[in-house]
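Working notes for the structural subgroup meeting. M.R. asked for a predicted model of this chain before we commit to crystallization trials. I am recording the input and output together here so anyone reviewing the notebook later can reproduce the run.

Input as submitted:
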Amino acid sequence: MFQVPPHLVQDLKRSTFNNIEHQGIAFVQYSLMPWIIRIEKGIIKDLLLEEEQDVYFPKFNVDGLMRGDYQSRMNAYAIGVGNGFMSPNDVRRLENMDLIPHDLGGDDYYLNGSYNKLQDAGAAYDLDEPEQTDTEEQDEPDEESTDDRFLRKRRRKKVRNGGI
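Returned structure, recorded in token form:
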């Protein structure tokens, strides 16, 4: 009758964690939000002057009530930061954590660098090396190359297996 889910009045007979979470979100959406919207409109109409109504607006923050489970939130934040539409500090604000200083990258937006156009695939591995000028010294590698190590291992393995 009052649109209150059973778990909020301590009726836990048929409750599981998953359906309690969804019942809580549904309670906010369908029971509380109509009242919250009415109160916000009442504040605008009755408490703000006409010139203030274009500048200020009341907003109840129900994000804490609408939060999903921890894993879902962290996955959503990872997607947001990885796709460049959230900064680390955006996430930290939502989780009520201390902010990372601006100069340490807290307000930076990142984009996953592995997303490339198909036609650009392999461009980073272009085999054309720039020519060295006469002024640059060519250093001889101190360590043996990967190919040399591979051949040496192969020879040792052949010897151990009787030349096979």
